[in-house]
Amino acid sequence: MIHPLPPSAPVQNEDIQAIRAQFPTLHQTVHGKPLIYLDSAATAQKPQAVLDALAHYYQQDNANVHRGAHALAGRATAALEATRECVRQFIHAADGAEVIFTAGATASINLVAATYGQAALQPGDEVLISHMEHHANIVPWQMLCQAKGAQLKVIPINERGELLLAAFSELLTSRTKIVAISYASNTLGTINPIKEMVKQAHAQGAVVVVDAAQAAAHLPINVQELDCDFLAFSAHKAYGPTGVGVLYGKKTLLEAMPPYQGGGEMIREVTLAHTTYNSPPYKFEAGTPNIAGIVAWRAALDFITAIGFPKLQAHEDALLTYAADLLQRIPNVRLIGTAPNKISVLSFVVEGMHHLDVGMLLDAHGIAVRTGHSCTQPLMDFLGIEGVIRASLAAYNTKEDVDRLAEAVEKIVKTHC
Q1: pTM confidence score
Q2: I need a labelling partner for 157 at 20 to 30 A (CA). Which of 21, 288, 300, 319 fits?
């Protein structure tokens, strides 16, 4: 039997317990076992403050935004715009006009492909992505390249799950118009050197679209320091509601881009002969947004900010190291994604067992993990595997959660391998 190892960095247990107390979903049993939630990369659980904010909006402030002259409409509008300002500060954008609310990271990436991409790409141009991208940062660019007669090129990775930067430099040419890259891999956990990649891409005249869906809850983001042109992320992976996301874009680019959808709010003046469009961000926010979700997201961002990224990263890094140390001592377990610079995502396979079987057996122990290709089928093909078991750690996870995972995996291996 494996024995727990000392954590690789001290963690203040009282702080973690105070954090856990804010998440009602965690305090339940599944199949008669206390829930161990290790699927935050798919969606994070929500603190009570977010749930309270959702209820408050619908109970007290339910009204449409930017339209009504009455008190409820004013309160709803003020609350939505307060979240926009909170997001601006969270990512260090220069202007609130650079923060566009969308339905999520996927919607944000599709917006860029359908507006900037459609306008900028010409036949023979190239778009660069990497081998580790989520499908949401592959398919929109495939569709765009097919429509425009452009070529999609792929930055290779090594067996550890690191981008080959020398290959990236060689792929960059004057024909490269867009580089679309994840800040952190949802399957491997690898953190990519975005700032350096942006610098190289700009030297060739390309714009850079950063998929920060996995990074936003784990890494401090400063879009001005990164100098990226666009950045997308979702609320639900950062302790907020589902159905809400952000597209950051440099103001000069947003002003030049055509609108994505037509309708209310994105217009300045409409006649039957002609329409004049609104300025960013409203030009890209047609129709009624997910007001309640946007308003409640502010509470999630406040939750992250209150902990602070240094403390959050120290906790998650310690748990990740601890989990990797335990799991790699179990026979038949092989870790997938061993780059030294990672967020708290731990993927693995059990040799001789199907990933879905392992996931279902872990569920019987009350442990929630992700199984399958994790929306990264090209990555699975590169690695020569069908899928992985992915345990993803968040602010509310503990050393005891990791111990339970390791003990359950060891039992499964002994029983089935």
Answers
A1: 0.94
A2: 319
